[in-house]
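This section describes the prediction task in plain terms. A model, or a person checking by hand, is given the sequence of a single protein chain and must write out its three-dimensional structure as a string of tokens. No templates, partner chains or ligands are provided. The sample shown here is typical of the held-out split.
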Amino acid sequence: MKNICLYFQVHHPFSFQTFRYFDVGESKSYYDEWRIEREIRDAATNYYLQTNNYFLKLIHKHKGILKLSINISGSALDQFLIYSPELLSSIRQLADTGQVDFTGSTNSNSIISISDKKNEFLQNIVKNQERTDYYFGQKPKVFVNTDLLFNNQIAETVAEAGYPAILTNGTKKILQWKSPNYLYCSEDQKHTKVLFRNQNMSNELTSILTNPDRTEAQKQYKNLFAILNTINPDEPIINIYLNYKSFGGINQLEKQQFFQTFVSNTIKNENYSFSLPSQIIEQYGTISEIGTEEPICWVEHFHSDYYPGNELQKDAISQLFKLSKKVENTNDNSLIIDWKNLQSSDHFHLMDENHPDYSSNYSAQNTYKSKYDAFINYMNILEDFRFRLKLEEAKQKKIQVLQKSISSLQKHQ
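The expected answer:
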């Protein structure tokens, strides 16, 4: 029996606006608030609400048979709360069916896991666990890191956070000759199970859903089952990881009809069934240890050994986490929120020349024209953040001096 696990990713970053060097110290907001609101309202109306209703009906139609999982980033959750609270109610309806798992992640789609800030990474994970439990009534059992990042160090921290399993990308760099369709365990953390995204199935299904040529998509659909049927019968787990937005937008009805056909054909075949990730890690044992010191990942449009990135990205990440200690000592809520949003991987993706924003179909709506624009803008914001940290530090010192003076006066009274 082949168990198909469907994982859907929901993520929206807090996009930055143009921030020039002369804006440093001028109390200018970092965020393109008009764009953020426009994009999240569009996503809620034209993608998520309709897709949630579609899956709700499909789950009820195939009672107890169709199962899926959803991963919602902390920044997406924040934006839903601000701009579309009705979307959370819609997602909670899916949770209440008992047929949907909610996987855990970092609290802000953060790249903290590739830094040496283990305690902060751990706090980030725990915060997301708490929020997932609060809003959706589930304590997640499978960890899905930002960009599916994984290495031995990450596995160790995830285990400390109490997760029994982690999902990552099924790339040859780590698997080599092994199949992604088994359950493994981390070589350094034997009790931490490792699930792998099936690249062929995930990529093919994504291609079908995003192909505007529906005739061509139908041909691809036949190929999808051809790929499925080539998988060895003894390989029990097929993890398919997709962007949830793939089901909405243009040709939404055709996409839904296609996926309904995929579900129906899968159910009719006695060799396949849909399973939840939480069920898989309970029902199956691991076949061998696996691990890597170098990080692997899955970033759409980029390669699987993307991190630690190019020179611009490495410099930006290094400069960011140099401020970690100063942030630990602040109680300023606005600084803490900005610190969280500065860590989002999206900002660093924009520092790569292969980012789709820089392709031939460049839009005037894009904030940056090149990776250098993205890097400079980010570093200007980081400089302003550093300036604000210094002001806060000076403020706290003044308060401490004042408190000592008051304490001294009280002793002499």
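For orientation: The two ends are 82 Å apart (CA to CA).
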